[in-house]
């Protein structure tokens, strides 16, 4: 269970990357398409904001994964 | 059977099986190798199959369905899709090799140093590696590709610079394993310089693991390149499979002229699958368990 959760955490980055392509093809208004359009116009503030959001999401997911370890395996204690 | 073997007298003929013996008995691995060889041959002999499609094609042959004349049909410009795919193989292989080169140049030294110097240096380097590993890769690649400008070298550089962490992790794991072995300890006691130990004794041990990871990386690199050129940030002067898809999507013929989108996609799929199967075969061949008598 623990390795599964670890990999799921790592996969989040890939998932967001994949959603970028999907959103572009199907014209779905998500953060991926926002990045794509901002890149086309070289709109740096939008890019910065989008990356900050993505980075924050990934970090929060990392924390959640760490907290889940303690729930899943009683031998692991949060200090 | 395994347990009985343990008590058998080992004769001269009972040597462990060689790498090639195991590899060529691994069906998927051989399939992968054949696929890769076909792709390489296709890339080398591309000029013999036809000239590189350029500019505007014949206006009387726009969006033709696959036929004996145009194996994969023609696109909205009247250019032959089969030739585009064939010339795209060149780009893909060149690009994959460059990405592998870049990530080995960065990843292997980082992994060796992180494994050898444990403690603070190692932890710092692995922290950086983890940072790169968790970052959402594709958006970052797209942004860097847009800033650096569209050329095949830049795309390869971007993908390579962002995909070394996997190589670094594998190298570090192998280095840590090697560090526990006595010959490394002996080399240290003899006072051999660290660089020589790393290059001559640790690296050969790690190289087989790096080789497996490298073949997997080729597949990932092609996927990333297709993604980047699909979004229109690739090199506009050469054909790549992602670029054919982008052309199909931009002209709004993604679903009507299915041959424009289907064939490049199938080639991307086959390329990635052959490299993954090939690496499975190598892994099996390098595994001491599968080489037992």
Could you please describe the fold and organization of this structure?
- The complex is a heterodimer of chains A (79) and B (293).
- Chain A has 79 residues and is mainly α.
- Chain A contains three helices and no strands.
- With 293 residues, chain B is mostly helical.
- Chain B has a domain of 205 residues: MetI-like fold (Orthogonal Bundle).
- Chain B is built from twelve helices and no strands.
- At the A-B interface, helix 1, helix 2 and helix 3 of A face helix 7 of B.
Please give a quick description of this structure.
The complex is a heterodimer of chains A (79) and B (293). By secondary structure, chain A is an all-alpha fold.
Count interface residues per chain for the largest interface.
A-B, 25 and 16 residues
Shape annotation of chain A: elongated
Instruction: Supply the CATH architecture of the domain at 87-291 in chain B.
Output: Orthogonal Bundle
- The beta-strand count of chain A equals 0
- The DSSP helix count of chain B reads 12
SS-derived structural category of chain A: mainly alpha
**Structural category of chain B:** mainly alpha
